[in-house]
Specification:
Elements lengths: L26 E6 L2 H11 L6 E6 L10 E3 L7 H10 L4 E4 L2 H5 L2 H6 L5 E2 L3 H8 L1 H11 L6 E4 L2 H11 L4 E4 L8 E3 L3 H12 L10 E4 L6 E9 L3 E3 L4 E2 L2 E3 L3 E4 L4 E4 L6 H21 L5 E11 L2 E8 L6 H5 L7 H10 L14 E8 L14 E2 L7 E5 L2 E3 L5 E3 L3 E9 L2 H12 L2 E2 L23
Parallel strand pairs: 1-2, 1-4, 2-3, 4-5
Antiparallel strand pairs: 6-9, 7-8, 7-9, 10-11, 10-16, 12-15, 13-14, 15-18, 16-17, 18-23, 19-24, 20-23, 21-22
Helix pairs in contact: 5-6, 6-9, 7-8
Length: 455
């Protein structure tokens, strides 16, 4: 912490980065309360010149991150967050979750002159409406699965009867990563359609998209955008299914690793040219100045990469996996994106090695989960081992308890994936709460050694 012995006191006359082209921010607000936001706070607090990072509302582990402090303001409270930014002389706001982005939080804060990394509501439609995103992909000539939109139960069931084959069923709106069913039969497709229109996903299920089923490995690619230019991060691979062997229900993500060898440097550049740059160009044609993350979830089919979906924020748990691999220029790069001036930022370096992330969930996840179980940990974080809280809550007596579906993530780095996952699982063994649920085969695609045995 370079400039103040008391980083959380207001700065009366901050040395604004606008006066220092290419420099990073000193005081940052990260909006959100999950593992993604803990990882962002951790990474940004380590950047040179960063004095303090606030995480609003944060979670049970936010205050334990060196240089970070939680702020008890809801992620949808635009006026409260704007007032906090004024009070704490915030120079950069990084909005983590999709819901406040879709609700226009970035627009609200930009009206106060704040530098915000995250798209406005118009750009957030990339994730907030599957139908809108599909139309943009068609306009941009981006490869994606064949699809059909339906705004009623009757229309969707009629399409299914006409097509008469298993389909992917997607609630059109935001459903916390759980609004997708990859059906294995026509009957399962029909049941998924019925569930959407029966209100399983609330307002997100007012309409839906039916898609052809693609086959191939999935990979996540993230581009940091200033509205015109892009910086790409190493590719990552998520594990969506709750069960080992990639079985069972879809979740928000049970673990991840990076860099995913599914895409080499040439493959990543092809994604830039064929997917991300055309998407950014199509957004500009619609008058959208997109400053934030464009997250392309891709399937590598025999005929080439196809977009499964776009998200308007960092993936979770890919974010936890990637942050330890990114260099100290991260804060300056995000600020330059927020200002629409990526050309002024220093190159974002990527550290060598591999990163492995294992998520621990509460009993019952991804369904109804138990909350309030005490969390204990003897894990000692280091430069190569991190503990990021997600669904946890700090109580008045200082104890930490479970408070959500995905409770925490343990992340580790090493020269190879075997060593990285061994370190991550060993770290996870130092954390305990009743009903802890996690997969023991995360990274099975890149690991050579037997998966850890249960104790």
């Amino acid at each position: 912490m370079a400039r103040s012995d008391s980083p959380f006191s207001p700065a009366s006359e901050p040395d604004r980065p606008a006066d220092r082209p290419g420099a990073g921010p000193a005081r940052i607000l990260v909006v959100g309360g999950g593992g993604r936001e803990n990882a962002l706070g951790w990474a940004l607090a380590r950047c040179p010149g960063v004095e303090a990072v606030w995480i609003a509302p944060g979670n049970g582990g936010s205050d334990a991150i060196p240089g970070c402090r939680s702020l008890a303001i809801a992620e949808q409270d635009g006026d409260g967050l704007a007032a906090a930014c004024q009070r704490e002389a915030i120079e950069l706001v990084v909005v983590g979750p999709e819901a406040p982005l879709a609700a226009g939080l970035a627009d609200r804060l930009r009206r106060d002159g704040l530098a915000v990394f995250g798209p406005g509501a118009a750009g957030a439609q990339l994730e907030a409406s599957k139908q809108w995103a599909k139309a943009l992909m068609a306009e941009a000539g981006i490869a994606t699965a064949g699809h059909w939109a339906a705004s009623s139960r009757e229309q969707a069931l009629a399409l299914l009867e006409q097509l008469n084959r298993p389909l992917v069923v997607k609630a059109d709106g935001l459903a916390a990563g759980k609004g997708v069913t990859v059906a294995e039969s026509v009957d399962e497709t029909r049941a998924a359609i019925e569930a959407v229109f029966d209100g399983r996903f609330g307002a997100a299920g007012a309409s839906l998209v039916l898609e052809e089923i693609l086959s191939g490995p999935e990979v996540s690619v993230f581009g940091l955008s200033d509205g015109e230019r892009l910086v790409l991060l190493p590719p990552a691979q998520d594990h969506k299914r709750i069960g080992e062997g990639d079985s069972g229900a879809n979740t928000g993500g049970m673990g991840a690793y990076a860099p995913a060898p599914l895409l080499d440097a040439a493959g990543l550049e092809a994604v830039r040219r064929q997917v991300l740059e055309p998407t950014l160009a199509a957004l500009r044609r619609r008058g959208i100045d997109y400053r934030g993350v464009i997250y392309a979830g891709l399937m590598l089919t025999p005929s080439g990469a196809q977009v499964i979906e776009f998200n308007c924020r960092f993936g979770d748990p890919e974010c936890e996996t990637l942050m330890p691999l990114l260099g100290p220029e991260l804060a300056a790069v995000l600020l330059a994106c927020a200002r629409g001036d990526l050309a002024s930022a220093p190159p974002l370096t990527t550290l060598p090695g591999c990163s492995a992330c294992v998520v621990a969930a509460a009993a019952g996840y991804p369904g109804e989960v138990r909350r309030g179980d005490a969390i204990s940990s003897s894990l000692v974080p280091s430069d190569q081992l991190q503990l990021f809280h997600a669904g946890s809550r700090r109580q008045a007596d200082g104890s930490c308890v479970t408070a959500g579906g995905r409770v925490l993530a343990v992340v580790a780095q090493a020269d190879g994936f075997d060593a990285a996952f061994e370190r991550a699982y060993a770290g996870l063994a130092e954390v305990h709460y009743e009903g802890m649920t996690y997969r023991r085969d995360i990274g099975h695609q890149v690991r050579r050694r037997p998966e850890p045995q249960t104790t």
